[in-house]
Amino acid sequence: MSKQRSRDTGIEVALRRELHRLGLRYRVHRRPVRAVRREADVVFGPARVAVFVDGCFWHGCPEHGTWPKRNGEFWRAKIEGNRARDANTDQVLAEAGWLAVRVWEHEDPAAAASRVREAVLRRRGGLA
């Protein structure tokens, strides 16, 4: 598992490419709120939108997530812990005035980028 990339994964790069194609500019792998030690994969500072690209296995995707049979208790605790941390991150960001957008690794990058674009434009006041 140590060989798994934690940044610049295929879906992240594809999503960023689509966001750029849509004319959006962003920061990569930044902490939206400095007091919180969690990085977002894509950050739109002025709009206060943080995008997280979640892996189906690591974040327990309801559609594609699996529960390993070997060392099952450890992995269930690990994945449930990741889910709890994700929920806490979303809550902390919301309290600080940020919007957290979650993208699953199985999502189409173009569709996800479109969803992110709408959120950013809405936060900027560009969409009703």
TrEMBL record:
Q: Which InterPro entries match?
A: DNA_mismatch_endonuc_vsr, Restrct_endonuc-II-like
Cite a single GO MF annotation. Answer: hydrolase activity
* The keyword Cell cycle is annotated on this UniProt entry: no
The superkingdom of the source organism is: Bacteria
Keyword flag Nucleotide-binding: no
Name the Gene Ontology biological process terms.
mismatch repair
Pfam families reported in the protein's UniProt record: Vsr
Going by the UniProt record, its keywords in alphabetical order are: DNA damage, DNA repair, Endonuclease, Hydrolase, Nuclease
The record's family statement is: Belongs to the Vsr family.
Q: Which NCBIfam families did the record assign?
A: vsr
List the protein's name. Answer: Very short patch repair endonuclease
The protein's organism comes out as Saccharothrix syringae (Nocardiopsis syringae)
